[in-house]
Design goal:
Layout: E1 3-5, E2 12-14, E3 17-19, H1 29-41, E4 46-48, H2 58-66, E5 74-79, H3 92-104, H4 106-118, H5 131-145, E6 150-156, H6 166-178, E7 181-187, H7 193-206
Helix pairs in contact: 1-2, 2-5, 3-4
């Protein structure tokens, strides 16, 4: 597997990464761990998780897989969108059943995707992207992943304004200095990138 070095951060990852959003929909958690093991055996060493994936259970699966491999893989996780499901999300077996049903039903899949598109955002200027939100999410992620650091911490489905919060940036920079996070940045959809780039360019021309 070819490896590449990410610009600015210097982090080296496998060219192909494994997205962990669907881990709880492949069967049992043992099945999911075996899937990660298979990807790793094929040369994939970058794994992308998030606090909300698998109704909050995906990171725990990745944590099981990471045992004995942490220094040979890179991990990205995200904050800003909370796990959905309420009481249902606490039941690992039911989560798998629900995820399988969603995969089989195009109607359910569309409903869930619409909900994900709006989760984590709102009219509040702090939303779920305050330093306090980030701290709580990162602490949970580290515990679930069974590690003392993540290679990338990303703002999940963030708006451009969230990336300009000075208090959040300062908090993230402190995490980089202490070593719990190697790099941070936004995580957004491809269709929003042109607008975000336009805003960033406009901000830069005004300074």
């Amino acid at each position: 597997m070819e490896r590449v070095t990410l610009t600015h951060s210097g982090i080296e990852i496998s060219r192909l990464g494994f997205g962990c959003a669907g881990l709880t929909g492949v069967g049992t958690h043992d099945d999911a761990v075996r899937l990660l093991e298979t990807a790793f055996e094929r040369g994939v060493t970058h794994f992308d998780a998030a606090r909300m994936y698998g109704m909050g259970h995906a990171e725990g699966i990745v944590g099981r897989f990471l045992e004995g491999k942490r220094d040979r893989v890179t991990i990205a996780t995200k904050f800003g969108m909370l796990p959905k499901g309420g009481a249902l999300g606490k039941n690992k077996k039911l989560v798998g059943v629900v995820k399988s049903a969603i995969k089989r039903s195009s109607v359910l899949n569309k409903i869930v995707r619409r909900g994900m598109a709006t989760a984590g955002t709102g009219s509040s200027p702090t939303g779920r992207f305050s330093p306090e939100d980030a701290r709580s999410s990162l602490e949970t992620s580290l515990r679930e992943l069974g590690t003392d650091r993540v290679d990338m911490l990303l703002l999940h489905n963030c708006d451009f304004e969230h990336t300009q919060r000075e208090d959040l940036i300062a908090w993230l920079e402190d995490r980089v200095r202490e070593g719990t996070v190697r790099a941070f940045g936004p995580s957004t959809t491809h269709d929003r990138l042109p607008e975000d780039l336009t805003q960033l360019t406009s901000r830069g021309s005004q300074t």
